Amino acid sequence: MLHVRVRAALTTSSLAAVTALALAGCSLVGGDDGGTTASEPSTSSSADGKGSGTVVLATHESFHLPKKLVKAFEAETGYDLEVRAAGDAGTLATKLSLTADNPIADAAFGVDNTFASRPLGEGAFAEVATTATPPAEYVLPEGGDRLVPIDSANVCVNVDTAWFEKEGVEPPQTLEDLTDDRYRDLFVTPGASTSSPGMAFFLATVAEFGDAWPDYWTDLLDNGAEVVDGWEDAYYGDFTAGSDNGTRPIVVSYDSSPAFTVSGGRTTTAALLDTCFRQVEYAGVLEGADNPAGAEALVDWMLTDEVQSALPESMYVFPVMPEATVPEAWAEFAPQPADPYEVDPDEIAANREQWLTEWTDVISR
Amino acid sequence: MRRIAALVALAAAPVLVLGVLFVLPVAGMVAEGFVEDGHLAPGAVLDVLARPRVHRVAWFTVWTSGVATALAVALGLPAAYALHKLALPGRAAVRAALIVPFVLPTVVVGVAFRQLLGEGGPLGFLGLDGTPAAIVCGLVFFNVAVVVRTVGVAWESLDPRPGQAAAALGASPWQVLRTVTLPALRPAVVGAASIVFLFCATAFGIVLTLGGVRHATIETEIYLLTTTVFDLQAAAALSVLQIVVVVALLALSARLRATPDPTAQRTVAPPRAVRRSDAPVVVATLLLLAAMLLPVATLVLGSLDVGDGWGLDNYRALATAGEDQALLVPVTAALVTSLRTAVDAMWMALLVGVTVSLIVTRRSHSVAERRVRSTLDGFFMLPLGVSAVTLGFGFLITLDEPPLDLRDSPLLVPMAQALVALPLVVRSLAPVLGGIDDRQRQAAASLGASPWRTLLTVDLPVVWKPVLAAAGFAFAVSLGEFGATSFLARDTDPTLPVVIFRLIGHPGEHNYGMALAASVVLAAVTAVVVLGVERLRVPGVGAF
Questions:
Q1: Residues 6+ apart with CB under 8 A from B180
Q2: ipTM over 0.90 threshold
Q3: pLDDT of B324
Q4: What is the pLDDT of residue B302?
Q5: CB-CB: which of A39, A93, A353 is closest to B405?
Q6: B231 to chain A: which residues are within 8 Å by CB?
């Protein structure tokens, strides 16, 4: 009995020692990255015309740019870039709107055309002048002097072409087709209330059918459409090309998605280019920023060729600047729609609540 | 009177912490809805509460959470007994395995559940996908560990002698359970049930994923109203409704928890050998384990699936930044951040939790004192029952000025996680501390022991194991916490759940496989850490 106890005591004490060591080295307190100096509003310019200090960017969780580019920006401009990425696009818009009088950052990126009017209305953004001029088609009709378009992505209905070939069925082409009996129980979409691509698809139906959209959605649901929470549920849970257990070959996704299903030199999915809604993401300088000069430099930088060309592989979106280069797979497999659906941001802002209430009623019927 | 003053002084620090980190932000966010153009305008908020939709949403929240809680208790009690009282081989490992679902990111579990329950899945024939039943299953899956752990540790420290005496006097095992054991366990069972209910009532991702958007709870509605619709009045109305429901529930559970004679419990009894009559309990535990591991197995299989066969490619990729550099930091670095954050959250939750538990369980000498103690007890449970969305946005608008300029602090994430873990710590420790016969402390004091010494010789030996269990729990909560973390985490050092969410949010089979592999790693690390923490012992404590 005694030796058992001794052994147990030995193992526990050594375990305790190891754990204590682990704990000592394992805390955010006193760690190198524990403290930051972000709150110091140092915006002085040094003698060589370069800026200094930190510029803070508020953005959503999908934001990402290669480290190399960020380092180059810091070296070139003299600013330190600190990125605070959290939450989805709606969360970002709400954060910026709520903190309009005491901004959480110097610049913001990731407010899109479905949410733009809210932070603009709360006065969260200051006027900004950029060196490069993005094409007029992306610029907001109102607030274009505050929000600068950076990228665009089209939300389109995607089809599993391999599935349709195997079944010998012609894939659908238009929104109207999705209510056709041939495509019964084949379509899945993320919800408009819970998902940003879901909202975009809903807006496409509003643009196409106007006030008659509830009838269209009723037909869509009668035809066995499934509404799920998020894009990942639809794509990886139900879509035949995204999941082994998927049963639905038609899904709401992006125009770039077919570039990610390439095998053996061809893609097994396609985006239906007549069903697309264009999302445009903007950047801007926040009103009352500690470092407005740094923020403006940051917005300028996001329009440079390097950043624009890095957007597709970093954030799965298309650049707005025509000179930017797009990866080969994208050029080959992910054509962009020529004439996507659009809904005026102000109209979205004015109707969003009523639309969503009605939409929820239609889908819970 | 002096006792109350001393009590208030002792409670001041934890109350202040909760006041700043919880009451202030929530009040600030709710005020956004009540104040219009600088004037107090409660009318619009009250109008919202009259909407039929609000009633539907509130009722759906209450009944799904209630059913899920009842199921979690019914399934958790046999497992708590088998895993904490019986000398089952490998019981420590099974206990650690049962906590795994608790930390898995809801977005990943959601996809795993839907692969099981969905149209093409192996359980698709049940037709559960998108139904309230699926939501209830998900809630039970996530929360049954709470019952097993909080009730299990209380059961362990239960004095077996009254039960043995009853048995010697001729009571059947069922009679012993009903008349001796369960009454003594009531504080722990009610405590666990109220925590589970609060977790269910504020569940977010799992409701949306498994309910297929059709079913709304108060929590999902607050999120929708705040971030998508920006109707702050309606959001405030629902937050107030939520707080009212939670406070009512806590008052009820405090009443049910109170035992007339808490002096029965004292020692940690060694686990006893398994007998033939234990078969039903053991079988029930194994069935529960199997049901819990089914979705986890789906994840493991998915993570090993490399397209045209099986392999470890997804795991090897964890040290990289992913396909097309999808990540800013490799998963391995995120794991380190997660562990460091969890250490901080754990010590914060323990520090405050142990203090609170000691305060609320000391014997009261007057009615007023007892009221103060039980109000404090409920107060520290509140953070579990209030919307993370309201709290998160509240942080941004109230903690933005010196001296409380916390919104950029790297400690904000562990602090938020500690708030979530705190009630679990209190509910694990309070029943055990409350079960210590106060006469022992008095005896120690009359023999000349200082209060400190009394704590060490009377309280610590009994409470040591529950403290470790609570520490493991707090650690696990922090590792798996996503809601508050995703809201507050910074891009330069994201935690593992945030990275997993990022991976799964992008197209590319490779990223999906990596997300599953990272989830499996998260689950494994959690299980190992929980297992390790529970094995820690102080010399001379615990009769093993």
A1: B162, B163, B166, B171
A2: no
A3: 57
A4: 83
A5: A39
A6: 353
